[in-house]
Amino acid sequence: MHKLIHSNIGRLLFFGALGCLLFLAGNRVDELRVYQGATLAMFVVAISSIILLTGYSGQVSLGHGALLAIGGYSAVLARNYWSLPIWLCFAVAVLATAAAGSVLGTAAARLSGPYLAGTTLALAVGLPSIANQFSFLGGEQGLLFDVGAPPASLGADFSPYKWYFWIASSAALIALWWLQNILRSRYGRTWRAVRGNEVAAELAGIHVGKAKTLAFTLSAGLAGLAGALLAMTIGTVSPSAFPLTLSFSLLTGAVLSGVTTLPGVMIGAVTLVATPEIANAISHRLGDSGAVTSNLPGLLVSALLILVVMLVPNGPVEQLRSIRTRRSVSTSR
Question: What is the mean pLDDT of residues 26-37?
Fold first, then answer.
C-alpha cells in the first residue's frame, strides 16, 4: 500500500515538473513552435484515447475523429451560447462526448472485429452531413471559438498561441496522469483480461459488456477533450476540421506509438506533427508541385506505418522493453 502511494506521488511530481518545463519552454520559442506544441498535446490526448480503447480493451475504432468533433462542437457551443469559462467548456466537451460514447459503447459491446470498426467508420463518414443540417452548428462554415486573451499577469509578451500551448499542455499532462492511474488500477487489469480472452474473463466473474462500455465511455471522454483542444488551436469548428483522414491519422499514430503501451504515445504524436513539415521540405526540393504537396504527407505516414508493422509491430517502446527483458533473462541464466 505504501509503495503504491509513493508511486502515485512520484508520478504526480514527475508530471508537475514536466509541466513547469513545458511552461518555461513555451516562453522561449517562436509562435510556430508553440502552435505545433499545442497541436502535439492535442494528438497526445487523442492517441491516448485510442490506446485505452484498442490496446487495453481490444475494441477497434476507425471513426475516432467523429468523437473529437462532438467534443469540439460541445466546447464551442458552451462558450458561444452559455459564455462559460474555458475550463468549464472543456469539462462540457468531456462529459458530452463521454455520454455519446456511453450510448455508442453499449452498442459496441455487442459487436466485435470488423463490425465494430465499420460502425465507427460510418459515424465518422456521416457526422459532417449531420452537422450541416443544423443552423446552430454553423453549417459548412462552422463556428468560431474564442477562448479569450491570456491573463494580464502573464505579461504583455505572452501571446495567444503561448496561452493555447499552456492550456493544451496542461490538459495533456492531467489526462496522461489520470489515464496512467486508471490503467494501473483494477479497471486496467479487467480490460486487459477482456482483450486477452473474453470467455476466460467471464468465467473469472467479469461482466464483459460493462467493461467494454466503460472503456468506450472513458475513451470517448478523452477524445472529446482532444476535440476541444483542436478547436481551440485552430480557432473554429466545422465539418472540414474533422475529416475522415483525421480518424485514420490518429489510428496510425497509435500504431506508431505502440497500441498496447501508453509511454510511447509521444512518438506517434511527434510523427503526426512533424510529417507535414517534412513533406513541405521535400516538396520544396521537388519544385513545389501541388500534387506532391497534397499527397506526400499521407504517403510518408503510410510508408512509416508499413515499416513499423513489419519491423516493430508492438511499437518501438514495447520492442525495447522486450529486448531488455530477454537480455535480463539471458544474463540471469
Answer: 80
